[in-house]
Specification:
The protein is α+β, with helices and mostly antiparallel strands. Among the domains are: 107 residues, Ku70, Chain: A, Domain 2, CATH 2.40.290; 75 residues, no CATH class. The protein has 5 helices and 11 strands, in the order ββββββαββαβββααα.
């Protein structure tokens, strides 16, 4: 059962809503250990300096590189004086239109769960935000770090997402190869066919219909090898080159294939 990772209160105006914080995501991955192939024993990592000598943990300090091989040493006591003041409040500073927040700013997601005596004020805040189409922008401190967060109403509950700051977002202008895309000419026929392809694949979003097939295959491989089965490895020579095809013809063929796939799967098209 999920456990609360923080408890405090949402503060907006003179209203305070006691809440607990639960992670909304449980990431699934396959973790491997590093193994010595000669002895089948686990490989351990040691902390060593540039001369290859092992460094005791108590002798390791934090350093910020200001030039090559030149560091400014910062102590834990110095960092402690700069740490944000511990607080049990999620302080709402603004309410903004949800459509104004680019999804790139969202980071980790959490559920806000009200204390039993705060359910009415929690529900009131959730419903008012739902009707106004607004998202709350707030700050809070967890584990000595201050976070910028967005609180969104979702089906009667409040979900809080930590956010990245504006100077942490990489803009398209900084990415090579994106600066000249606006100069490419697209014909009306190509655009119409592309829109038709999009419509042929349109459907209601169902998160449960998507699976991490690679992770599942890795787990199946591990299970097979653990039980003594030997699995043949299929390799590709990698010499095949993608055929250059006419864009419009490829779109037309894609539309036809999408329609056939939709018929065979019985997947309903998203209604307008």
């Amino acid at each position: 059962m999920p456990r609360a990772i923080w408890s405090g209160a949402i503060s907006f105006g003179l209203v305070s809503v006691p809440v607990k914080l639960y992670s909304a995501v449980s990431r699934k991955t396959v973790r491997f250990n590093q193994i010595d192939s000669r002895t089948n024993s686990r490989v351990k990592q040691k902390r060593v300096n540039s001369d290859g000598e092992e460094v005791p943990y108590e002798e390791i300090v934090k350093g910020y590189e200001i030039s090559k091989d030149s560091y400014v040493i910062i102590t834990e006591d110095e960092l402690a004086t700069l740490a944000p003041k511990a607080s049990r409040m999620i302080d709402i500073t603004d309410f903004v239109d949800q459509v104004d927040i680019d999804p790139v700013f969202y980071d980790s997601a959490y559920y806000l769960v009200p204390d039993e005596l705060a359910r009415k004020s929690y529900t009131l805040l959730s419903q008012a935000m739902e009707e106004s189409g607004r998202v709350a922008i707030a700050t809070f401190v967890m584990r000595t770090k201050q976070y910028l967060v967005a609180i969104r109403p979702i089906d009667g509950t409040l979900m809080m997402s930590t956010m990245v700051y504006a100077d942490e977002v990489v803009t398209p202008e900084e990415i090579p190869g994106l600066e000249e895309l606006g100069e490419i000419d697209i014909s009306d026929a190509e655009l119409a066919m592309a829109n038709q392809l999009i419509e042929s694949l349109a459907t209601e979003f169902d998160a449960d219909s998507y699976r991490d097939s690679y992770r599942q295959e890795v787990l199946e491989l591990i299970e097979q090898k653990a039980s003594g089965e030997v699995r043949a490895i299929e390799t590709s020579d990698g010499d095949e080159e993608a055929a250059v095809v006419d864009l419009l013809a490829a779109l037309e063929a894609s539309v036809s294939a999408a329609k056939e796939a939709r018929k065979s799967s019985g997947k309903a098209k998203k209604s307008a």
